[in-house]
Amino acid sequence: MKKILKKVIVSLAVVAVFLSMSCSDRNATNIEAKNSSESSTHVVIDHLGKSVEVPNEINNVVVTDIYPLPSVLTIFFDSADKIVGMAPPSMIAAKNSLLSELYPNILNAKTNFISGANINMEELIKLNPDVVFYPASDPTEGELLSNAGIPAIAISVNKWDYNAIETLNNWIDLISQVFNVNDRAEIAKKYSNDVLELVKDRVKDIKDEDRRRAFFLFQYNENQMMTSGRNFFGNWWAEAIGAKNVASELTKDNSVAVNMEQVYDWNPDLIYITNFTTAYPNDLYDNTIGNYNWSEIDAVKNKECYKMPLGMYRTYTPGIDTPITLYYLAKCAYPDLFSDINIVEEVKKYYKEVFNINLTDSQVDKIFNPNKAAGQGFSDGK
Prior knowledge:
Strand content: 5-15%
Number of strands: 15
Helix content: 40-55%
Low-confidence stretches: 1-37
Largest sheet: 4 strands, parallel
CATH superfamily of the largest domain: Nitrogenase molybdenum iron protein domain
Structural class: alpha/beta
Order of helices and strands: HEEEHEHHEEHEHEHHEEEHEEHEHHEHHH
CATH architecture of the largest domain: 3-Layer(aba) Sandwich
Shape: globular
């Protein structure tokens, strides 16, 4: 009986060892398969809080109607080769900015897959995108892309209350998750945050009654005038440089239409003109557009109207040039407080330190004297 029991115990032990080895082999196989799977894709969390599985190797990128993003991606890669599709307004900016001069391949991107916010899925699929960036404000667009089997990543414009630097930093963070190719995210974030802190520190002691009264001419043509109320980028820019946005009483999200009577009542002493319009300061000084009469506005009387810069994209929105734009707007508003800031040298320093790009004097001049054509194609508050 003892011999039989011993044989049974030995047999069970052998079976246990065999099962253990078999399970170990299966586990090893499963882990290997899992690792193999993980090596080809990874998961990122987009600005809608959604988990999106994206390939590790991304060669074709499409950006729908987030107009500044192609320029951010291009600088991030130090190449435009991955950008195969973007919206027409992004292309107009690229053609009329340093973006196409530094990265001419950006002009190869297709724009025929989108009109406004309307996507032609057949044309988009022809681009064979590995990933598509779309606006977080339009989750339906994300569903459309996901249902087509395309990794779709939501990018937010207003999640951070139109704070241009915080928005840019979060864009770069997400791009870093998606591509994980270099350390530019931390370098760019540090530079931007340092500039913001410097500007805030210098303007913090300005008395309320001495703060400049700024008006942002967002879009402007013979038929309409649009500005930034409290809930748009202009309000953040004004507060960041220690000024007051004269239109802050307007609470509509994004841009808002105004008339000349309202501008008379506000009577700004400082006007910033974006590159979402072809207008230049002389168009206000000489009343060359429509039937508007700017002659009684303090900013016009004192020749304090300024065209916003255009580096890689229209700088009113978040983008690669956001920290430099902050310096520029602050220096225009308070030249004495920022007399030591050489804007040309700062631009060169920024592009070199963060993106390893050596700008020439001519290229810097183009940033601060942008091509009027960059403002073409905008007829509403988009």
